[in-house]
């Protein structure tokens, strides 16, 4: 006879423990074990559930007999269609995560309203807000007249019943952590509830042909809360990023079965909601004319799009025995590597100085091509003079001091030329010719030190 057993489930990774402890042995997180009740048979095996229906068998078909995939639903916003890979795919499930208050609900309400005006049957299910609150936001976004069907419900059984009756084309669930199923004894938002609700909704979307979007909360580390298996269930995973002190937001694709996995969409936050950025590639550049050192423009690649960002550095005398290293928007390990290469290979000593490095606008440098721009910002700050006017930098710095080539060099240079830059300090290997842009290939980091670094001490 089955009996109820008490287990402790990690809310971070989903690992199951037989007894409570302060730290999860699977993922190493602290205070994430929550007591749950599971029905199990003697011996620790799961009790089989009785079913009144007869077990059927799966139907097979040959690959060449499968019908073509339905056409995508074009949203009509270039930044969104770019990230989705050309529009929303029917019978797909998308998971969008982001910090609280970053604008997830605002963006999805705008998308739902636009698709509804385009003739699609659209449903917006909110488990966090009342209908009056959503209507108030819709009026502020100027979309209150759109024929979007609205529901404020957290019971999965009621939500599924309504969806099967309405048979919509596009569904937003805000958020998956608020949904709960009465078939489980776990609390709403727990690992078991999130996993079960996401699986049920995804299975319905695959069968009905609707495009489903799930909103997910994030942990303090920035990862989507709940078990990682939810990210494997869905077809697409997006992260909505941005700094509260800046007006722009980035929608970044980290998984996409129907498009590229490294694309981004850049939006600006206005009083009437989120709008596509007017000049995305130059959004992270400063408009000020720098007359002192400590800045360098980095030509980055985000998917198929070149983006120019400004790297700022400050090198100052240390007031304490241990020099301080403060980094915003870049990896601290890569900064330590660049500082070591400058000292060991180029003779530039920064060991007794405080180093502050920041990427302007809240942009985050994730590719190794930003090494050369960071080194240029450090060198010009140390020399206290700006780099050559209208200069752009990119290249990977090796431990030997060599400057390694990076991908899509000509595309980066073409974008720098379009934005009016005059000088480009890049690795050797570029084959293109760019009118008005002087390309200066570098083979070693010491070459950059000779060009823009501090004067050698006598």
TrEMBL record:
Pfam families named among the record's database cross-references: AAA_25 (PF13481), ChlI (PF13541), Zn_ribbon_LapB (PF18073)
Domain RecA family profile: 69-218
Keyword Transcription regulation: no
PROSITE patterns reported in the protein's UniProt record: RECA_2
Residues at which ATP binds: 98-105
UniProtKB keywords: ATP-binding, DNA damage, DNA repair, DNA-binding, Hydrolase, Metal-binding, Nucleotide-binding, Stress response, Zinc, Zinc-finger
GO molecular function, one term: ATP-dependent DNA damage sensor activity
GO terms for biological process, alphabetical: recombinational repair
Record function comment: Plays a role in repairing double-strand DNA breaks, probably involving stabilizing or processing branched DNA or blocked replication forks. DNA-dependent ATPase involved in processing of recombination intermediates, plays a role in repairing DNA breaks. Stimulates the branch migration of RecA-mediated strand transfer reactions, allowing the 3' invading strand to extend heteroduplex DNA faster. Binds ssDNA in the presence of ADP but not other nucleotides, has ATPase activity that is stimulated by ssDNA and various branched DNA structures, but inhibited by SSB. Does not have RecA's homology-searching function.
Domain notes per entry: The middle region has homology to RecA with ATPase motifs including the RadA KNRFG motif, while the C-terminus is homologous to Lon protease.
Family of this protein: Belongs to the RecA family. RadA subfamily.
Name of the protein: DNA repair protein RadA
């Amino acid at each position: 006879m089955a009996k109820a057993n008490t287990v402790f489930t990690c809310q971070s990774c989903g690992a199951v423990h037989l007894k409570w402890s302060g730290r999860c042995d699977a993922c190493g997180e602290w205070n994430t074990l929550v007591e749950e009740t599971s029905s199990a048979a003697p011996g620790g095996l799961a009790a089989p559930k009785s079913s009144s229906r007869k077990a059927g068998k799966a139907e097979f078909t040959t690959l060449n007999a499968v019908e073509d995939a339905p056409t995508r639903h074009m949203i009509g916003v270039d930044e969104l269609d770019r990230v989705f890979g050309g529009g929303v795919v029917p019978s797909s499930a998308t998971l969008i995560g982001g910090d609280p208050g970053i604008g997830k609900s605002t963006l999805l309400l705008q998308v739902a309203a636009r698709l509804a005006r385009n003739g699609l049957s659209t449903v917006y299910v909110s488990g966090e807000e009342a209908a009056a609150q959503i209507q108030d936001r819709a009026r502020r976004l100027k979309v209150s007249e759109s024929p979007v069907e609205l529901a404020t419900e957290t019971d999965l059984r009621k939500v599924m019943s309504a969806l099967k009756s309405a048979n919509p084309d596009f569904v937003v669930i805000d958020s998956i952590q608020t949904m709960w199923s009465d078939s489980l004894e776990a609390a709403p938002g727990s690992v078991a509830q999130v996993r079960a609700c996401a699986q049920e909704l995804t299975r319905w979307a695959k069968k009905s042909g609707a495009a489903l979007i799930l909103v997910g909360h994030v942990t303090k580390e920035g990862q989507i809360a709940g078990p990682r298996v939810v990210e494997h269930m869905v077809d697409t995973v997006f992260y909505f990023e941005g700094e509260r002190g800046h007006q722009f937001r980035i929608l970044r694709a980290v998984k996409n079965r129907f498009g590229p996995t490294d694309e981004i969409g850049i939006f600006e936050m206005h009083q009437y909601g989120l709008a596509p950025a007017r000049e995305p590639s130059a959004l992270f550049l400063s408009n000020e004319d720098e007359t002192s050192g400590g800045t360098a423009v980095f030509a980055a690649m985000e998917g198929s799009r070149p983006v120019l960002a400004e790297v700022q550095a400050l090198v100052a005398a240390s007031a304490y025995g241990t020099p301080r290293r403060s980094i915003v928007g870049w990896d601290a390990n890569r900064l330590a590597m660049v500082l070591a290469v400058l000292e060991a290979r180029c003779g530039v000593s920064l060991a007794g100085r405080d180093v502050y490095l920041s990427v302007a606008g809240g942009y985050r440098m994730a590719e190794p091509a930003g090494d050369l721009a960071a080194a240029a910002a450090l060198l010009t700050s140390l020399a206290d003079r700006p780099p050559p006017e209208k200069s752009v930098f990119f290249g990977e710095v090796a431990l030997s001091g060599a400057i390694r080539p990076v991908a899509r060099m000509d595309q980066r240079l073409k974008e720098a030329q379009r934005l009016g830059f005059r000088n480009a300090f890049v690795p050797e290997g570029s084959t293109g010719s760019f009118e008005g842009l002087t390309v200066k290939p570098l083979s070693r980091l010491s070459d950059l030190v000779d060009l823009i670094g501090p004067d050698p001490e006598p």
